[in-house]
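idk why but the lab printer keeps eating my pages so im just putting this in chat instead. protein + S-adenosylmethionine:
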Amino acid sequence: MKDRSVDVFITSPPYNLGIIYSAYQDKKGEAEYLDWLEKICFEIKRVMKDDASFFLNIAGSSSNPWLPFELIVRLRKIFILQNHIEWVKSISIGKESYGHFKPVVSKRFLHRNHEYIFHLTKTGIVQLNRLNVGVPYKDKSNIARRSHTYDLRCRGDVWFIPYDTIRKKSEKFNHPGTFPIALPQMCLRLHGRKNPVVVDPFMGTGTTLLAAHYEGGRAIGMDIDKNYVKIAKERLEKAVLTK
Ligand SMILES: C[S@@+](CC[C@H](N)C(=O)[O-])C[C@H]1O[C@@H](n2cnc3c(N)ncnc32)[C@H](O)[C@@H]1O
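predcted complex ->
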């Protein structure tokens, strides 16, 4: 890919947790895994425009909670960590619970209800459109006090994005690690450029490409697994036909 040609990268690489994909073996040695992703990130930086955003979604596991942090410290020599977003998949407020998570059966560990979205940029001064993903003020007196003509504020860096309720794995295309489409949509809205060029180098079932399609962008996706590429193509074709 050409230098400085991409507006937004959104990706969720394999997490190196031994997840069962149909082609990819998700279990490298830790040093090998980090070297591999670091090399890819140098290439990502090369093809990013100077005001591009790179949203990197990753999580650890109960047995390897350090991994996302090891990675982000490594990436310090390549990018500025402009924002660190917590993706909350499930939350309990008082006695009410919202969203879904994979239960952890353990006397030591809590269920893991969140993942990380690291927002990496080349300079740390990339302008975002925070109100594109904004929320209305709870206390409406803030609108006048802040001399706003609109009822919106920045939603902050904790994003509750639940998965749809599914009954069968086939509803998630038998892929073990998809993210909900709202996740790349919110990243694209936050970056906020019109008609962005979007890339997901680990696209799986093509969720990022679909989000780019709905948000008016042009997207390029890659996956090592031909079956996932086929699913991504089918999802996109269906979206184009029904738009
Ligand atoms: C966490 S999944 C991404 C899922 C995606 N976000 C979605 O919603 O469907 C990671 C993907 O990386 C792919 N992958 C692993 N190694 C790769 C490589 N060297 N090049 C491209 N894709 C690779 C796997 O096949 C897997 O589909």
